[in-house]
Amino acid sequence: METNLINLKISTPNGVFFDGFVDILTVKIANGYIGIQKNILPFISNIEISTMYINGKNSDKEKICAIGGGLIYVDREYIDIFTDDITFKEDINEDKTNKLIAETKNKLKIKSSNSETLKNELLLKKAINKIKTINIK
Question: Contact 35/26 with Cβ under 8 angstroms?
């Protein structure tokens, strides 16, 4: 095993989404995108709704994901991510996501409770993020 790799584990309510060694993870937190490699100073943060990159662009193991927020814990040797919404770019169904966007926009036009409005706004942000992720070259 190469010594410059860091262990990344991404967990969802449905189980482990990803578990393996990576050279770098690029994820968006409150201050913007951050690249995380082995031996970084430990931290805990929220993850923003964004595109997440596993490994670098020059890696044959690069993976791009749409992540709908979550929590990240980083130690010098490993990264733990907890999220309820993550999809690999190649697994995003563009037609289904565009349909969801249209339906959610229609729901937002109808007067509803604050909690229902917030729920639909979050759903819309996550769906739009998936479309943005699909379009990354």
Answer: yes
What φ, ψ does residue 49 adopt, rounded to 5°?
Answer: -60, 120
Helix locations, the chain, DSSP H: 94-109, 114-134
Q: Which two tokens stand for residue 65?
A: 């994901």
Band of the pLDDT at 112, cuts 50, 70, 90? confident
Provide the pLDDT confidence category of residue 2 given band limits of 50, 70 and 90: low
Whole-number Å distance between alpha carbons of 10 and 69: 12
In the block, tokens 């393996």 appear at 20
For the chain, give the percent of residues with pLDDT over 90: 83
How big is the chain, counted in residues? 137
- Check the CA dihedral 9-10-11-16 and report its sign: negative
Q: What is the mean pLDDT of residues 15-27?
A: 96
CB 48 within 8 A of CB 28: yes
Using alpha carbons, select from 79, 76, 29 the residue that is nearest to residue 50.
29
